[in-house]
Design brief:
single chain, mainly alpha, Cytochrome Bc1 Complex, Chain D, domain 2, globular, binds heme C, signal, Cytochrome_c4-like, Cytochrome_c_Oxidase_Subunit, C-type cytochrome, Cyt_c-like_dom
Amino acid sequence: MSDDKQLLILLLACAGLATPAWAQDGSIEQGRQLAAQGAGAAVAACAGCHGARGEGGAAFPRLAGTGQAYLQAQLEAFASGARKNPLMQPIAQGLTPAQRKSVTLYYSQLPPPLQAVDAARPTPADAGAWLATRGRWADQVPACAQCHGPGGNGVGAHFPPLAGLPAAYIAAQLQAWKDGTRPPGPLGLMQAVASKLGPADVGAVSSYYAGLGAAAAGTAPPGEKGKATP
Ligand code: HEC
Ligand code: HEC
């Protein structure tokens, strides 16, 4: 019964995250140029690491089809140093606020590199799939799919996709929330989730979502195949 109540509170919290007005501003054309060419010496072309279509790769998260508000918040956090990464901090700092808006608008409107499907009937032995689709209510851990959508494809502007992210990247983000080297994000939802995951949970759920992406790569548009393979 208290589980239901907890879930209701979470879902209400998720519904309350509206898309801000500035998501409508910014220039997609400017974003396309930044993605392909960068800006001066300080900002390398995003495509060089995140892929020609923002599909991501070995060590680099996908950007295509991810919510604009989420992507811009990440660039702001890299720029301020609240989110730490030696490659992305100087790049984000080298962009003006208007350029951060444009480039994230551009990526949010690209088609997602893949559409993943959750394991149909996970058993408790599939620790990663179970956590992703059922959660663990005894420890008040909701299913990841509750916020990240079925198949980890992402939901709306604030809940990023997980399918196809590199396993090491997912694990590093969960650790960053535990260490406080990544800002808590909307309502501190992810910090709360990460704080309840042990090392075995992190390993299992990270490889589950990375694997979902690899499995779905077979259904990706031509040219995207194999890109998500770590
Ligand atoms: C030299 C390689 C490199 C280049 C060039 C690069 N990135 Fe990144 N980017 C990374 C890495 C590595 C990460 C993961 C950082 C982490 O682990 O937190 C990342 C993460 C991100 C994230 C966070 C994604 C998420 O899911 O939270 C965004 C947004 C992003 N980059 C946008 C850009 C944009 C926009 C550009 C071009 C202006 C760009 N990147 C250029 C390497 C690069
Ligand atoms: C109650 C909602 C909620 C639940 C449940 C949830 N998440 Fe999240 N998650 C979020 C939000 C919101 C963000 C964006 C945080 C930010 O803006 O920095 C996020 C971001 C992430 C990211 C960062 C993705 C990226 O591109 O950098 C990872 C990794 C992640 N979640 C993993 C998980 C895992 C694994 C689970 C299940 C164990 C889970 N989440 C459950 C709300 C949730």
